[in-house]
Amino acid sequence: MRKVWAQGRTMTARQHLSITLPNGMAETVEAKIRSGAYQSASEVIEDGLLALLDRDASVERWLRNDVLDGHAEYLADPTTGVAADEVLERIKAGRATSRN
Q1: Phi-psi category of residue 66: left, alpha or beta, with phi > 0 → left and psi -120 to 50 → alpha
Q2: Cα torsion at 78, 84, 57, 23 (round to 10°)?
Q3: Distance CA 32, CA 39 (A)
Q4: What distance in Å separates the CA atoms of residue 37 and residue 41, rounded to the nearest whole number?
Q5: Rounded-to-integer distance, Cα 47 and Cα 77, Å
Q6: What is the pLDDT of residues 11-36, one digit of tens each?
Q7: What span, in angstroms and rounded, lies between the C-alpha atoms of 43 and 36?
Q8: pTM for the complete prediction?
Q9: Which CA distances in Å does 90 have to 28, 42, 65, 74, 84?
Q10: What does the longest C-alpha to C-alpha distance in the chain come to?
């Protein structure tokens, strides 16, 4: 099986690694294999690493596309900024609303 990952690179060459996992994680790997979703522990770990790479790429895109734009907007007009304590209050209010 040939999988494609970050930036179009394919994974064909393999390297043997030995890892130690906490019991709960090891049980999750075994459960994934028992369910038939994966054929081996290597496939489970590989899929997890691909998800991690995807998440890292998403965070990087968010930082480049949203955070940098927001920072540039603030630098152009500092009056658009929001104080940290106000942001915290907005977060708390949003959490309180979502609990109800």
Answers
A1: alpha
A2: 170
A3: 9
A4: 11
A5: 44
A6: 678 899 999 999 999 999 999 999 99
A7: 11
A8: 0.63
A9: 37, 43, 23, 19, 10
A10: 57
